[in-house]
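2024-03-11 09:14:02 INFO queue: dequeued item ABC transporter ATP-binding protein, len=261
2024-03-11 09:14:02 INFO validating residues
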Amino acid sequence: MMRIEPSDDRLAIKVRNLTNQFGTKVVHKDLDLDVREGEIMGVIGPSGTGKSVLLRSIVGLIKPKHANIEVFGTDLTEADQEARRVIERKWGVMFQDGALFSTLSVRENVMAPMREHLNLPLNLMRELACMKIRMVGLEADAAPKRPSDLSGGMRKRAALARAMALDPKLLFLDEPTAGLDPIGAGNFDLLVRSLCDALGLTVFLVTHDLDSLNAVCDRIAVLNAGQVLAVGTMEEVRANPHPWIQEYFSGPRGRAALGLS
Ligand SMILES: Nc1ncnc2c1ncn2[C@@H]1O[C@H](COP(=O)(O)OP(=O)(O)OP(=O)(O)O)[C@@H](O)[C@H]1O
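2024-03-11 09:14:37 INFO prediction written
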């Protein structure tokens, strides 16, 4: 399998001076973050620290108070509608709860981004959707089912298939393994890693799951108090003496996930 090595000099995402504030609550204050092309970047931090808001700011669902955000070299803060659409076609997003349309079948869910962005005959979109469904490890008979007829793990895979609908170069995954049992979560991690290696994707992965961090991430960014407190490989981040980082990685769950006694 081909593995595209993350590149230091090519950035998929460049965030500078991101400030988000809701009322008097400052969520981000001049936050900077780089995500390199081809890497899986795990984003961690205490609950409520602004991981999802960061993701939503990058994909344009939240308008920050201030920010410079570039994706694949395009400044999204300056981009006109057309330039934005070009970039939007290059990414796929899997939201925290999957956010599948409950009244549509799995296949129709996967076709939804195609209908919005591609001008293709219906039959072709159906075929492409079925390919994506099989690509994420679902059986073909999942295609006509409603999300409510699937298990939690299968729904996650369906949501991933929809995020992959437009052959993205960049995937945003917001806590994709939340709510899965350890085996289901482990299988999902393997799926993400192998899709990334095969397709050369860049991934922005928000997670609380230490096993996922360990199994799939090339680098980790730790959010705390409105900024990126530390960024680097697992080893580099673990060496940071900040109390939250030490507690996170050296507490019983951290030690178990890292195979330490
Ligand atoms: N649209 C909004 N309006 C007002 N406040 C918001 C909005 N979205 C998020 N917040 C607040 O911003 C803060 C950060 O939220 P966010 O969901 O990004 O945290 P998180 O780090 O992803 O947390 P968790 O790990 O628990 O999912 C929270 O205090 C949240 O209540």
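2024-03-11 09:14:37 INFO annotate: The pocket of adenosine-5'-triphosphate is lined by residues 22, 27, 45, 47-53 (CB under 6 Å).
2024-03-11 09:14:38 INFO item closed
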